[in-house]
Amino acid sequence: MRTLVTGGAGFIGSHLVDALLAQGHQVLVLDDLSNGREQNLAEAKKNPAFAFKRADCADLAAIRASFDGVDWVFHLAALADIVPSIVEPIKYHRANVDTTACVLEAARAAGAKRLVYAASSSCYGLPDRFPTPEDAPIRPMYPYALTKRLGEEMVLHWAQTYKMGALALRLFNVYGPRARTSGTYGAVFGVFLAQKLAGKPFTVVGDGTQTRDFTYVTDVAAAFIAAAASDARGETFNVGSGGTYSVNELVKLLGGPTAPVPRRPGEPDKTFADITRIKARLGWAPKVSFPEGVAKVVAGIEGWRDAPVWDQGSIAESTKDWFKYLS
Questions:
Q1: Where do the domains of the chain lie, and which CATH numbers do they carry?
Q2: Residue 117 catalytic?
Q3: pLDDT higher than 70, residue 181
Q4: Does the pLDDT of residue 232 top 90, yes or no?
């Protein structure tokens, strides 16, 4: 297939690019490099079936021609993180909603056969049911979650109105090599690995008993390809690990002392995906266990050498808007 990956220089996107190339597909990446890194594509660039174009995917005129002749579109270009979305909601709307509209329209005009959107499990907010199924109530708690949900709604609407072969994958707590290591205070793996390298204590939120459905990135890449190869349209699918694991379990696997930071409003005590639908409809299932995945990440820990090292004070400063608006 001729495939196009928006945000392909990012964490998940670059793993998807590698998986597509390994299966013999042609891959074009569109990325403005605001979050992604070209070094994530170092191996891909050695493959003659790969091409890269630096582009702002919110500029329809700039990206339209790149979609000509493309069979599968994977839309992963987005801004992540909670606090920046609270501070700059318009920026997030442009990156996550306007960009999605432009990608949908470019794919529609080009007659692309399939479009798979990277949705977010954050749309569930504070779930009532575990494992959480796709028909659970939608309760975005902050602008990032809202903009990802709006993008998902657009994908499903384009599938309904224009009969596009479009669908959405709600991703749960993705981790693995190449996770973003700079910028704002974000995902726990990046925070902990930088602290481990620096010999600092792990800053554990609350008592560490909260659990997350940590899902390894190569399993997520496989889910995207399974979705593209399916006949599903206008549907959403959870992508999770099949389990849920406490922060304390992660600390035990990494090994090291801890330092507490306050629990934060709007964060669930548990994330746990019901993956019954994706297993039945797409024939996908996760393969990498949590201990195996953590071991893989630790083996590549040098990749976090330049990441910021957070402590209790810097975390308190960086999350003050979180408490201000979500309390």
A1: 2-174+216-239 (3.40.50.720), 176-213+244-271+288-326 (3.90.25.10)
A2: no
A3: no
A4: yes
